[in-house]
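quick one before i forget lol
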Amino acid sequence: MAVGIMGGTFDPIHLGHMRIASAALEELKLERVIFLPDGDPPHKRPNCTREDRLAMVRLACADEPRFAVSDMELRRQGRTYTVDTLLALKAQYPDRQLVYLVGSDTFFLFPTWRTAEKVARLCRMAIVLRPGNMPDDVRRAQEAFTQTYGLDSILLSRPGLDISSSGVRDVMRKGQPVENLVPAQVDAYMKLHGLYEHAGQTRAKPLRPDVPNENHT
């Protein structure tokens, strides 16, 4: 059996995230998909507190018993890197294959990950085609990354949705409805707590200028 891993800032979690997880769950017959909100990612500065982001992820996953949520990265001190998470999950699930779920836009950035070779040894990657990306380009990248890093990857047949967390925040900043962009429970939570009313003003600490250009790595 295999366990899917869905990492991200989830600021906020949206229907695009859920589409990726559902597609992998069904197509790859995964035992479960574990959602892991980033704690202190090197490539982003969250607009929302980690407590709110974790709460929204839990709400989004509540109706699917094969979705699990871990606060592992939120509890870790310092920068969170994928390789550390994979090592911890490998120890937790020694008899399971780990399948890391990514959008094709993120997959193209794999060579920029400073731990790319280690990540390739620890997991398989399941790729969801993002709007604007072409399947042939993904397949060429798959072949290149297999040759360079030994990465085992698969392009899922179900494409992703044209939704982003930044887009959701922008819509909310304009005071427009987002019920077609996020799970209903998440929409209700954001309204209840007044989240993203000033989406352009982050409450998190600013990103250090020397942070490497990595994506959850």
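fyi Residues 2-193 form a domain with the Rossmann fold fold (CATH 3.40.50.620).
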